[in-house]
Design goal:
Elements lengths: L1 E6 L4 H11 L5 E8 L3 H11 L3 E4 L1 H10 L4 E4 L7 H9 L3 E4 L2 H7 L1 H6 L5 E3 L2 H9 L8 E8 L17 H4 L9 H9 L1 H14 L6 E5 L5 E7 L4 E5 L5 H9 L22 E2 L7 H11 L3 H17 L5 H14 L9 H20 L2
Parallel strand pairs: 1-2, 1-4, 2-3, 4-5, 5-6, 7-8
Antiparallel strand pairs: 7-9, 8-11, 9-10
Helix pairs in contact: 1-11, 3-4, 5-10, 5-13, 10-12, 13-14, 13-15, 14-15
Length: 361
């Protein structure tokens, strides 16, 4: 039985993780919960699962992870505030089931320098798919990683037509039910850009060998292309409980956690190139990833400010990525070696710079 700590327990990832655990009490025991602000919902979860240790907020979550005896920490916190708990889980020697992509992207080499091989298990559906597909061959046999994107609610739209997009429209994702920030990031494709950086850091594959293809049906979650021309794809209905269960019990599969595809039915799956003019976030993210240092932290922090401003009606949809690009272009890293302090300073600068640009938009 694996002892599990769930960070972000009241959010989408956390509640679905508890679904998996509820259905498999012989496999998992919840020993710690942390939520952002919803104390009442977390307390109800703790009462149901008999969890003695809970925390509220990222700082308390970090302390909880350092103090508790656990096998797996599922980090489902949203945003770069998840960095502290990620570092705490790795330093404590726990397996880190990582749904909080921002902590790896922002932390970069700082996170990688602490993690031992195999200690981080990806929970994002795309990276879980890649991790599964990579088991089909040796690292030296990998040609490319192919990340799939649904295209979001605005697939096929021209850049000009996106100028009038409303916050409500941006939150109408065709496939996934996610929080405000992640859903908006999926609409701008900033989320896919972040996932490209995450894939590079997780799997040590060069950016030139990581590509994005638009797959509206969201059944193929990502693919690995090998040097002999074969491609291994992971396919399943869009249900996050499958990658979550793998994160909790890697490398074991949890029986019955998801419904398989119905191969007796007719299926039509399509793939199309990403429109980099209408959605430039992926190209920008690759540039940021190659630059390294504190650039990814600046990219992410500027995005968080811009998304908040968009939903507050202060800027338009296209201004989100334009703001990120302007902040990134003005950034000058202060230190060559990443530390939590240098990352915090860079994020603070990025948020202030983004706010300044937004005020003049």
């Amino acid at each position: 039985m694996r002892r599990i700590v769930i960070l972000g327990s009241t959010g989408s990832i956390g509640t679905q993780a508890l679904d998996v655990i509820r259905a498999n009490p012989e496999k998992f025991e919840v020993v710690g919960l942390a939520a952002g602000t919803n104390r009442a919902a977390m307390d109800a979860q703790a009462a149901e699962f008999g969890v003695p240790d809970v925390a509220l907020g990222a700082l308390e979550a970090e302390q909880l992870v350092r103090d508790i005896d656990a096998d797996v920490v599922l980090n489902g916190i949203t945003g770069s505030v998840g960095l502290g708990p990620t570092l705490a889980a790795l330093e404590a020697g726990r397996t880190l089931a990582l749904a909080n992509k921002e902590s790896l992207i922002v932390g970069g080499e700082l996170v990688k320098s602490i993690a031992r091989p195999g200690q981080i298990v990806p929970v994002d559906s795309e990276h879980s798919a890649i991790a599964q597909a990579l088991r089909a061959g040796a690292a030296g046999e990998v040609s490319r990683l192919v990340l799939t994107a649904s295209g979001g609610p605005f697939r096929g739209r021209t850049r000009e037509s996106l100028a009038t997009v409303t916050p409500r429209e941006a939150l109408a994702h065709p496939t996934w039910n996610m929080g405000l920030v992640v859903t908006t990031n999926s609409a701008t494709l900033v989320n896919k850009g972040l996932e490209v950086i995450e894939a590079h850091l997780l799997f040590d594959v060069a950016y030139s060998r990581i590509v994005v293809t638009v797959h509206p049906q969201s059944v193929i979650h990502s693919m690995v292309e090998f040097v002999d021309g074969s491609t291994i794809a992971q396919a399943s209905p869009p249900d996050m409980r499958l990658p979550i269960s793998l994160g909790l019990d890697w490398p074991n599969r949890v029986p019955g956690v998801g419904a398989p595809l119905d191969w007796s039915a007719v299926h039509s799956w399509t793939f199309e190139p990403l429109d980099v003019f209408a959605f430039p976030a992926v190209k920008l993210a690759k540039q940021v990833g190659r630059a390294g240092s504190t650039y990814p932290a600046v990219f992410n922090a500027a995005n968080e400010q811009a998304v908040a401003a968009f939903h507050a009606g202060r800027i338009g949809f296209l201004d989100i990525v334009d703001t990120i690009e302007a902040v990134v272009q003005r950034h000058e890293p202060a230190e060559a070696i990443l530390t939590r302090a240098s990352l915090a300073d860079a994020e603070l600068w990025a948020r202030r710079e983004a706010d300044r640009i937004i005020a003049h938009t």
